[in-house]
Amino acid sequence: MRVHRFRSAALGALAALSALGLTLAASSPGAAAAGTGKKAPVPGFLAAADLPPHSSSPWWAGKVTAGLPDPEAFCVDGALPAGRSHHREFHTEFDTNATQVAVTAKNNTAASRLAASLRKAVAACAADWLRETPGGTASWEDYGGLAAGDGAHVYGVHTSIPDSEPGVHLFGVGRDGRTVTVVRWGEMGNLGHAPVDAFKQTTKTAVTKLD
């Protein structure tokens, strides 16, 4: 497991919530697929009980909704197609929250390419975030692959700006046939306190439930 850390040079102007990527996303009808023709099948999604346990709060799950969340999930903003996609959001009584997006591609080849693109986006997220956030610090970890479906991979991303709480996110990207999913878990904190092992199981479950 390799840790990648970055630091920028000057203080920037982004607001803390958007910089840390911890705002809860609200489902937006406008984010639903438009002009996609044939309606995409609805994959299976995680349940609240599938998320890493929170020490002092239950998890609640929103409805499975067509399209992408609004705003889109941190680190994969712009990397997911709105068409043929569905999402579900999860929250606790505190800042800990999660999002799952699943996309049904036209075929296995397209799905494999999308999964690779998502892995690349998450791996580049810390560096990309710093380019837009002077004065911030960020790091990421590659937690490796998982045996689930046609493959899954888990990453962690930590971001921080001066005079604000740091944010930590875990990402699971997986594929089963022509369906691809990305799961994002986030809260204020750092990678040392992130529930990596439990999130790996969450990612496996997410891929298993797709079919």
Task: Please render the helix and strand layout as text.
Layout: E1 3-7, H1 16-20, E2 60-61, E3 65-66, E4 85-91, E5 97-104, H2 108-123, H3 125-132, E6 137-146, E7 152-160, E8 167-176, E9 179-188, H4 196-209
Antiparallel strand pairs: 1-6, 2-4, 3-4, 4-5, 5-9, 6-7, 7-8, 8-9
Q: What structural class should be given to the helix and strand makeup?
A: alpha+beta
CATH topology name = Protein Transport Mog1p, Chain A
Secondary structure tally, helices: 4
- Terminal-residue CA separation: 30 Å
Strand content: 25-35%
Mean of pLDDT: 86
- Tell me the Rg in angstroms: 16 Å
Helical content class? 10-25%
User: What coarse outline follows from CA principal-axis ratios?
Assistant: globular
Helix/strand order, N-terminal first: EHEEEEHHEEEEH
Please report the total strand number as a whole number: 9
Overview of this protein structure:
The chain is of the alpha+beta class and 211 residues long. It has one domain: 3-Layer(aba) Sandwich (Protein Transport Mog1p, Chain A), CATH 3.40.1000. The protein is built from 4 helices and 9 strands, in the order βαββββααββββα. It has helices at residues 16-20, 108-123, 125-132, 196-209, and strands spanning 3-7, 60-61, 65-66, 85-91, 97-104, 137-146, 152-160, 167-176, 179-188. Strands 1, 2, 3, 4, 5, 6, 7, 8 and 9 form a 9-stranded antiparallel sheet that branches. β7 (152-160) and β8 form a beta hairpin. The longest helix is centred in the middle third of the chain and has 16 residues, at 108-123. The protein is globular.
